[in-house]
Amino acid sequence: xxxxxxxxxxxxxxxxxxxxxxxxxxxxxxxxxxxxxxxxxxxxxxxxxxxxxxxxxxxxxxxxxxxxxxxxxxxxxxxxxxxxxxxxxxxxxxxxxxxxxxxxxxxxxxxxxxxxxxxxxxxxxxxxxxxxxxxxxxxxxxxxxxxxxxxxxxxxxxxxxxxxxxxxxxxxxxxxxxxxxxxxxxxxxxxxxxxxxxxxxxxxxxxxxxxxxxxxxxxxxxxxxxxxxxxxxxxxxxxxxxxxxxxxxxxxxxxxxxxxxxxxxxxxxxxxxxxxxxxxxxxxxxxxxxxxxxxxxxxxxxxxxxxxxxxxxxxxxxxxxxxxxxxxxxxxxxxxxxxxxxxxxxxxxxxxxxxxxxxxxxxxxxxxxxxxxxxxxxxxxxxxxxxxxxxxxxxxxxxxxxxxxxxxxxxxxxxxxxxxxxxxxxxxxxxxxxxxxxxxxxxxxxxxxxxxxxxxxxxxxxxxxxxxxxxxxxxxxxxxxxxxxxxxxxxxxxxxxxxxxxxxxxxxxxxxxxxxxxxxxxxxxxxxxxxxxxxxxxxxxxxxxxxxxxxxxxxxxxxxxxxxxxxxxxxxxxxxxxxxxxxxxxxxxxxxxxxxxxxxxxxxxxxxxxxxxxxxxxxxxxxxxxxxxxxxxxxxxxxxxxxxxxxxxxxxxxxxxxxxxxxxxxxxxxxxxxxxxxxxxxxxxxxxxxxxxxxxxxxxxxxxxxxxxxxxxxxxxxxxxxxxxxxxxxxxxxxxxxxxxxxxxxxxxxxxxxxxxxxxxxxxxxxxxxxxxxxxxxxxxxxxxxxxxxxxxxxxxxxxxxxxxx
Length: 806
Fold this sequence. Notes:
The chain is an alpha/beta fold. The chain has three domains: 45-347, Aconitase, domain 3 (2-Layer Sandwich), CATH 3.30.499.10; 354-526, Aconitase, domain 3, CATH 3.30.499.10; 593-798, Aconitase, domain 4 (Alpha-Beta Barrel). It has 25 helices and 31 strands. The strands form eight sheets. The protein has a seven-stranded mixed barrel. A five-stranded mixed sheet has the order 1-12-9-10-11, sandwiched between helices. The protein has a five-stranded parallel sheet with strand order 5-4-3-6-7, with helices on both faces. Helix 8 (248-259) packs parallel to helix 10 and helix 11 (305-313) runs antiparallel to helix 12. It is globular and about 80 Å long.
């Protein structure tokens, strides 16, 4: 690859052998799919193309990439671009997404914010998916039943809100949000938002699906134009064809190693070339899913035969036929001569399987070299658990490949040497697997099939051990930060394709290379796997499975539905609006702030707002705020979850946990700021990582650099994100120092190019000034002035209402 710059049973996961699950015996239901009413999910291609025609005129008919076509055809009012045009990487676009999807953990806060807007229904079709709150313990059926009981209050809240506002509600057990969106809602040329960082998964169907925080979703749900800086476009030119053990997962693992976790920031990855046509729709979705791991805004592909086949197979023939017409006019592919800001060339025929990790998804090693890496690092040559599935790799094609490996092993008399866990992506996948005896094939070699949910991938995994020893797991997941999966910061998660994970589960050793190595069978013979084959789509079609998991399509709002939140609830809490620091109209700069701490190194949204056991508090801001930055490293001392309060009351220690120091600041009404390192806030889209510091009184975060979604989330909640103009200044500002903004007044008055300086007064020594950069748009400045974007929406709504009564 080269880059060319151009213009423009048992407790799960313990060493004991899991017992075969009996889950499938109670779930049997094989209702075949029929063609659906696709009215609400078919993009309005004629309207989009008409809008794009006007944009093309404004841009002097220059050739457009596919990503530009989809994005610009969703501009709310093309005439706003008439004077200055559109400059990639510079122009802020006001967009009208066609759909919103929310998972159950993030939907709670999004709905609490939407409710405060006092609207009777959502402005665009919206869905809620119950997938994050189901903990994996001992198998699908019991895990699902237990989670429904333990999360009843939250599920009841989500379901009642869905009824009241006309939202489609996918019940616990229905599957993972991204697989369901791909199966039911995604359509070529669509623009949608999702409250999860892996929303781009739907890009496998030739659309733009963008992960956002809940406040961004509320924009679309209230009919407010959604703002996005026009991304740069990186073209990924694919030639050749994947072969042998190599899958689309290996392509994106390889690219992650080349681009790093921030190489896609502010960019859309647009794949093109003959190599795209050779891959399945669900394979392309895997690539798009993990584009989030390089920081990309989203990923997309031109409309292919594989997409058409997948639409028909999932009951969306009307969408396919409409897309065929749009394709004939050239809407669903890049124009000839379209220019990318960068082009990466990849010959698929030359790729080999990759293993990425530990602790970061961009540390890529070719499988053939991995045994050497294990030895060089002194890691134990053993795997403690193997896990396949998750939103990244749980398609029918993925599962049939894994089953091919399992059947080869069974024929040789082998069974897995380690706990081996499988997560179907949806009820549709689970039921089709059961009908086609794929589940049997996996369970017969030792697999435990988990509930159709996120489970271990997001930390919802009770392994049954409190050990903090170093150990290695091998997964087909997309993310592998410290402590993410089981709460043990010493668990090394290595990412690989489902086929590699499955094959290595029969060895139990990190050094095993199924491409080259053999295993000894019970009768003493040597056995070697052959490259697995999968089925892109089931020969007998998909089946629904349990229909009670599915929502009523396009439900009508039921405004009389009561949504009750107990004032003593520990799971849900009504939101109080954040106070604006400019409420008295006399202030032109932020108030003087104390630096709470300087955060060292990688600080993902998992570090800022941990998941796992904390997921149960996603709807209760006060409770979940108690996990603020608890796994972050303090650069002044190198300790985890340690901060100082140099203005403490007499008798109190200067040192405490980060949340408790933040609570002290809040209690005495002292505004504060954070100083942070590179790519701050990478990872999940969780807006709690912005809500929590704001709840405790944070008004500003100064970074060497930010991840895209998190920077936007901070702006939405009224926190000013600034970038060090000189990254070396990061080390000059420490805990207990005070900071004052200099020049913010000009920005507030509408001078968007104004530079903001910071006057830093150290605890000891002379004051000094440093220069910063910002990415605030005119609308985002108004959010800051109002105290949050939601405050701005409410203020505008109130003003419009008052105007209407005059």
